[in-house]
Amino acid sequence: MTSVTMSTNAIAEKRILTAVVAHAVKDACIAPVLLGKVAVRPHEDAQSAMNFFFNTKRSGIDAYAIWLEFDAERFREKLIQACFDNVAPKDLHLTDDQRRNFRANYKLFRNAPVLADEWTYDEEEEEP
Question: What is the rounded average pLDDT of the residues 58-75?
Answer without folding.
Answer: 91
